[in-house]
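Quarterly update from the structural biology core.
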Amino acid sequence: MIVGIPAEVKDGERRVGLGPEEVHRLTHGGHEVRVERGAGLGVGIADARYVEAGARLADRAAAWSSELIVKVKELQDEELERLPVRRTLFGFQHLPREPGRTRALVAREATAIAFEMVRDARGGFPLLAPMSVIAGRMAIDVAREHMAVPLRNVVVLGAGNAGLAAAQAAAECGARVTVLRRASATPRAVENAVLESDLVIGAVFVPGAPTPRLLPRSLVRRMRPGSMIVDISIDAGGVAETSRPTTHAQPTFVEEGVIHYAVANMPAARPAEAAAALWSAALPFVEEMARKGIAAAVRDNEALRAGVLLWRGRVCHAGIAAEAGVAHAALTSEDLS
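Predicted structure, tokenized:
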């Protein structure tokens, strides 16, 4: 199989889909790997190291023409424009609240397998989890950097990998921490906790669905002046009605007197650590798809199958199909035969 690793173009994104050791595993297995020139520079990997691993350095068009494209972040507009028809994308997709991107993938008859939806037999998310932990820890660091008031009371909305990592980091800083899980995050409980907080961390994840807006504008308006929201959930819309995506270059804005940090690719600020964790988690799935073929790998691997959002231009996820106004077509055994 031909595997392509394009350079990332999302603002501030420094990670890369696979590293040299992972590429060597693939080329040693008889597969061709096309790495776009300069793709690894953000994590300090020169092109020569990929060549030593057996990769073929390629221009952008050649990397994108591969059968299986392994990348980190969701497709940007300029990438959608160059995506050839009937290609398979393996990376973070972040399609909730992005109906235009979904329709563009349908038009290109794409197969999209989402890192954030791959789910193991225990119900965990092996590709999303390491990135969530990094983002959760980072949430406290960025808050301490940007907050105008002391960090005393922290509210964490969500108790998954990101939420628990953020809670632990906040506690280590001596803050009083309140974690609201799904069952306990009633409007009244959220209001009472948020109005007593200096920092609110949005760490809610609903697989394949937009993030519930737990912080309406009317509540944000009543928060303490100088307090902060770090909205880790911004990839799926964010927990605050006032949130909008920001970038590493311009990470914050002030709305209703509250500082907002809503960078949609937080782990890119720690590219070497984040990329290495992602490569380790992704490689077994990439190897299986390269060895068996994509259809057979998806058929045989339940975790991988859970990640399929589009299959050859058909939307397999009901919620995403409804948002995009296109037909929903569940993945069937006939598709994978």
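The longest strand covers residues 32-36.
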